[in-house]
Amino acid sequence: MPIPAKDIQDHWIFGEYGGVNPSITDSSTYTFLNPETMKALFEQEMEGCFLYSRHSSPSGTALADSLARLEQTEAAMVTGSGMAAISTTLLQLCSQGDEIVSSRTIYGGTYALMKHVLPRFGIRTKFVDTMDLKKVEAAITPRTKVIYCEAISNPLLELTDLPTLSDLAHAHGLPLVVDNTFSPLLITPAVHGADIIIHSLTKYINGASDGVGGAVCASREFIARMLDVNSGTSMLFGPVLDSWRAASIRKNLHTLHVRMQQHSRNALFIAEQLDMLGLKVHYPGLRWHPQHELMNALMNPEFGYGGVLVLDAGDEMTANDLMVRMQAAKVGYLAVSLGFYKTLFSCPGNSTSSEIPEEEQTRMGLSKGMVRISIGLDDDIEDTFSRIRRCLEAVGLILADLAV
Ligand code: PLP
């Protein structure tokens, strides 16, 4: 299998005057020497020809082509946010009366889209445990058009057995759509049978917490459908990623392999230390994690187990106290999102998963005391851990270590 990081590295696009970065296109529209070419472009894509930047732009296409290499798909397109990528993909695949079978442990925004917005268009979602293939199969009906999951779920870090789920989807003639936001480079869902891979570029791929973006990586045929001038949801809803932001994200994509390795190294260290203190930690790199073996089977090992872990502080008050102290100790920021070079933490039950009703959160195993921590690129992770340890002592989660 080709190594995706190397594929991205070898994707050279020169700028004007031999620039080492592609030039940023500062145009919403493009001239033609011949009206016949313009007419032909409305009917069908032509490589190297651009029409109007809501459809595509050279800067957006440069990023999209690199992302297709990342995900080992034929093609890709970029959008103004991860939610734009998810909503336009689902609306491209589903019409009134259709159904989606989705994992129940997904990002709160995606859950809210499926639960509250798509039903207004006559599209219903059945939420199931996608690790239980019998439940997935039982949920499929002749109206089902999509199977949807996250490769590593937000926030519980549950994995999906992508090869078996994709086999099941394909046996029913359905596409498997996988959100790979938590695990770029770590997992390559297309290699395990996924048909459409979605990213929030806002997270690891950009890695700087300075912009919002999304991507859809899929077959050439599906991307062309999304961009079709008459029926493409991306073309017609128009959630464009600006050229300047696309160029900036593409530059950051070229350091993703180094960043993922350091995020994973740091997160594994912190998870192991917290585990040794007897605390309840969720991290797929821990040997006892229920899906550790599955993670080993799915992952590209050189990139580690990922940068996010979840610490169960027991209750909301202790979790809040801990987060305030960790921010004061400069462990990182009390903020939503992930994949930043600094550590970010928040309680998903009250923030990024608050769209999911409390009874459903309890059924999923999500409690109010859980703190999701996206570990940064800290150089001295042992020092970071000592700071975390002092905060844990201060909130009473561990006893003070008098030897330290
Ligand atoms: N998918 C996952 C797994 C996420 O965590 C998020 C945001 O947190 C999104 C999609 C939505 O991405 P965006 O905020 O870029 O719209």
Describe this structure in words.
- The protein is globular.
- The N and C termini lie far apart (47 Å).
- The mean pLDDT is 95.
- Helix 7 (162-171) links the parallel strand 4 (144-150) and strand 5 (176-179).
- A seven-stranded mixed beta sheet has the order 1-7-6-5-4-2-3, sandwiched between helices. Strands 8-9-12-11-10 form a five-stranded mixed beta sheet, covered by helices on one side.
- It is 38% helix and 13% strand.
- It has helices at 4-9, 35-43, 58-71, 82-93, 108-117, 133-139, 162-171, 220-226, 233-237, 243-253, 256-276, 292-298, 316-328, 358-364, 381-394, and strands at residues 75-79, 99-103, 124-128, 144-150, 176-179, 196-200, 214-218, 280-282, 308-312, 333-334, 344-346, 370-374.
- It has 15 helices and twelve strands.
- By secondary structure, it is an alpha/beta fold.
- Helix 3 (58-71) packs parallel to helix 10.
- Bound molecules: pyridoxal-5'-phosphate (PLP).
- Pyridoxal-5'-phosphate binds at residues 81-83, 107, 109, 150, 154, 179, 181-182, 200, 202, 212, 214, 352.
Q: Tell me the Rg in angstroms.
A: 22 Å
Approximately how much helix is present in the residues? 25-40%
User: What summary fits the major beta sheet?
Assistant: 7 strands, mixed
Task: List the strand order in the largest sheet.
Answer: 1-7-6-5-4-2-3
Helix and strand composition category:
alpha/beta
Q: Which strand-content bin applies to the residues?
A: 5-15%
Ions, cofactors and other bound molecules? pyridoxal-5'-phosphate
The termini sit apart by 47 Å
Q: What is the number of helices? A: 15
**Order of secondary-structure elements:** HHHEHEHEHEHEEEHHHHEHEHEEHEH
Low-confidence stretches: none
